[in-house]
Amino acid sequence: xxxxPAALLLLLLVVVTGCSSGTDDPTSTPTPSATTPTxxxxxxxxxxxxPPPVPEVGSCYRLSYDQAVAPTSRxxxxxxxxxxxxxTFHVGRLERVVDGRLLAVDSRRLQDQVATTCxxxxxxxxxxxxxxxxxxxxRSVWFSPTLQxxxxxxxxxxxxxxxxxxxxxxxELTGSLSGVLDTDEGRGRFGMCGTxxxxxxxxxxxxxxxxxxxxxxxxxxxxxPDYPGEGAAQRAGEEPCTAAGRVNAPDPLxxxxxxxxxNADQWESGQTYGICWAPQV
Length: 281
What we know:
alpha+beta, five-stranded antiparallel sheet, globular
């Protein structure tokens, strides 16, 4: 079977100037001159734009898939008890000054900082083991200030967790995902399932809370710093996936199993493991 890419796998100063002119004659009227400006009481003060408020951990947002994978977001939060699609689990500060130089918020270095930090901190929020997180449809997304917000002083970044319903579609959530993979119910709802046998027409990776007929059972780690090649990646999964399929089946003498392994591009993007599948029982 050919491998499929994992979904997802899918940021004051007020200045008022003026002068007053003193005189010994209370009835005299000061005469404006070219060097003495007058201030109009109706003239508005010049204001620099205020930086946007720093996001708060525990905030929730109603976003579409495309909005969730965008680098920035201006959409306001909603109560987490209501339907939403993302939950903020970390807010950090951008390391903008490097070697005395101020980096742009959209620089590669700062974007890499955010893209590395958020996935690394996701396990602390959703819980579960490494294997359980691999077999789930939970992913991290991140946002940094817009260039305009950055110019006004914003230097934060925001990490959110989402649950994929299927490729390019998010599940609607209620409440928090904190520790959700520590429970059987959470692993069942947000586990990785399929609409058909992997590698066949009609297969789509979906959350197990959606209609499905196959389920991801375990992963197969591929060793080494470099991609082993498709042949070696395929062979690595035959024995463990056969065993997983046998244990999963009601009849250990009559069972099916499937295996997905990463190609070179998927390996480079971080998927250094294959996935064993079996029909839902």
